[in-house]
Write a structure and sequence with these properties.
70 residues; mainly alpha
């Protein structure tokens, strides 16, 4: 399923803000991590309808990925 690019951009912004707050980093750091994450790639490519998951769920997935990389 393909999502509207405008809706995806808004989704990305909400997920990044939630992720930054969740792990206590700046939005700029969260943005940089997000655009290099597997989660972003899956959302962008529409794999498993990741873009349909809740913002909180996606922020949690990013947090897991972030802590694995550290």
């Amino acid at each position: 399923m393909n999502a509207s690019s405008i809706l995806l951009q808004k989704k990305y912004a909400r997920v990044i803000a939630c992720f930054a707050e969740k792990i206590g980093i700046s939005k700029e750091e969260a943005l940089a991590f997000f655009y290099h994450s597997a989660c972003y790639r899956l959302m962008r490519e529409g794999v498993s309808d990741m873009h349909c998951m809740s913002d909180a769920y996606l922020a949690e997935e990013l947090a897991r990925e972030y802590h694995q990389d550290m």
